[in-house]
Amino acid sequence: MSAKEPSALNAFERQVEWIMFRFRWIFVILFLLPASLIFDSYHFVRNYFIYKLQSAPRAHGRKVARIKRQVREWNESGKKTKMCTARSGWSTMSFRFPLYKKNMTQINTDQLVDILEIDEKALTVRVEPMVTMGQITRFLLPLGYTLPIVPELDDLTVGGMINGCGVEASGRKYGMFQHICVAYELVMADGSLVTAKKFKNPSTQEETDMHTLFFGIPWSHGTLGFLVSATLRIIPCRPFVKLTYYPTKTLEEMEATLREEAENRENEFVEGLLFSKDRGVVMRGRFSDGPIDNTGKINSIGRWYKKWFYTHVEDLTKTGKVHTEFIPLREYYHRHSKSIFWELKEIVPFGNNVVFRWLLGWMCPPKISLLKLTTPPTLRKLYDRKHVLQDMLVPLDRLNETINVFHKEVEVYPIWLCPFNQPSCPGMVRQRSGKSIMYVDVGVYGITEKKKIMTHTKGFQMMYADTYMTRSEFWEMFDSSIYDWLRTKYQCTQAFPDVYDKVCKAARY
Ligand SMILES: Cc1cc2nc3c(=O)[nH]c(=O)nc-3n(C[C@H](O)[C@H](O)[C@H](O)COP(=O)(O)OP(=O)(O)OC[C@H]3O[C@@H](n4cnc5c(N)ncnc54)[C@H](O)[C@@H]3O)c2cc1C
Ligand SMILES: NC(=O)C1=CN([C@@H]2O[C@H](COP(=O)(O)OP(=O)(O)OC[C@H]3O[C@@H](n4cnc5c(N)ncnc54)[C@H](OP(=O)(O)O)[C@@H]3O)[C@@H](O)[C@H]2O)C=CC1
Ligand SMILES: CC(C)=CCC[C@@H](C)[C@H]1CC[C@H]2C3=C(CC[C@]12C)[C@@]1(C)CC[C@H](O)C[C@@H]1CC3
């Protein structure tokens, strides 16, 4: 456990800080909302034309050749500094800017933004790593398919979900994002192109190597090679999610209901929200064709004038009754995008007001990357002191204990609870029980009124969040056996930093 001391501020500085925080919405409404709309419209049109022209598969070879050439040039020029991707710090989905990029050779992977091919026989889709979740759902759902796991913010990338990690409400059935991956195409430190994948019975040394590499990539944060494409599983889907809300009145009831629903094999999605230590709701979802059996109405939560999803859920829990409704699938997947979970209320405090929603809701949300880019240093300091951003992945039977720790230390609500299945397979996140265990992601995001203490309970911490762990604490949490071996075998130690040196506090500001 390590404490973060608030820096001493005088009264004037506090006032400036408060004004910037309270009136940021003016800048957001006047500049960021229109800029976000332009940005998204450009990408929408661009992707539409690329799809219609079918040019992405041909262009992929050229893009990969360029990356191989950059890595070979790095080798030939004497390997002076280590390598990382050239993705700019402001466009990534974490609060922090990566400091490490400044002193490294940046390999340009920014053009890898296209969906390459869908194989309806093998039920897979092959995509480049900068493809976003919003892009994938827009492409797959009209074809009647979906990824088994769709992390909910539109701008999360496939590369980030694989090299970092991705969880979502369907994790109870499919695990983490890495568990829906079939193969990774990688440019390694020597400039070679390899395909890492799972083999049922690896029979040659090469197959064994590629099998081991496949398990090493998730959570490695680009420290084993550059991902240039990924083959992902797809599943058939239906146009709606039939969502049932079960209000809970105690933490014990929450844990029991979450477990019961997570273990029910008929459920596709299970998610919990805690609005206070005791009061919460468990939501279970199943694919559906809509309200044909008169068990509920359609609620198009994604429409611009609709309430933010979590406030809708909170209103339902206040009735104390079980409620069922049908949500269009894509709107369900991106249900937390419009309100950026519950972060937008700090930025546009009246963003959920009915008048605002009808007038300007269609431009929401502002892009997270633009918010990040335009956070002034004064506000960053305030966020440093008062804002909590933590995701702890813990076995479900430790939920109660974990909530108690977060309640005592930061008392930030709502808390996001996302159960997911953690198989016993090799990799950095490792449980060695020999069987699958139900874990839960406990996500805490928001402003705390308490003195901020960063605590890490037993489990795995998602590394996009703020981490104050020492190197030894880090490697106590994660399993390094395959990782270290792969780093040596593929000459990564000279080519890429150690994963801890990318995610520790000193590497980000
Ligand atoms: C000095 C040294 C030499 C090494 N030499 C080799 C080598 O020659 N060849 C090589 O491949 N690795 C080699 N390794 C890597 C080695 O595989 C791992 O470091 C080690 O086995 C990890 O142990 P573990 O208990 O975490 O994984 P284990 O559970 O032992 O897993 C090892 C391998 O078994 C397979 N496996 C296990 N569970 C599952 C599962 N649930 N689903 C699918 N696959 C599974 C995977 O291939 C995995 O890579 C070496 C490591 C070291 C330190
Ligand atoms: N529901 C969820 O699961 C959510 C998850 N998140 C977190 O957000 C992060 C994803 O953010 P996103 O902006 O998409 O990704 P980032 O750009 O932040 O990438 C995350 C890491 O993956 C590495 N990486 C990305 N692409 C490649 C590639 N092609 N080759 C090699 N390494 C690569 C990056 O390396 P480098 O440093 O070299 O750029 C970086 O270390 C994840 O880490 C995730 O944990 C956030 C919100 C929700
Ligand atoms: C569901 C999981 C696993 C994680 C959700 C994480 C998000 C809540 C955060 C990821 C990036 C964060 C940023 C902000 C809020 C919280 C996230 C969206 C800001 C928008 C907060 C305001 C700052 O000025 C900019 C931040 C950018 C990153």
TrEMBL record:
UniProt entry tagged with the keyword Oxidoreductase: yes
Regions crossing the membrane: 21-39
SUPFAM superfamilies: FAD-binding/transporter-associated domain-like
Membrane protein topology class: Single-pass membrane protein
Coiled coil: none
Secretion signal span: none
Keyword Ligase: no
Catalytic activity: lanosterol + NADPH + H(+) = 24,25-dihydrolanosterol + NADP(+); 5alpha-cholest-8-en-3beta-ol + NADP(+) = zymosterol + NADPH + H(+)
Main location: membrane
Gene Ontology cellular component list: cytoplasm; membrane
Record protein name field: Delta(24)-sterol reductase
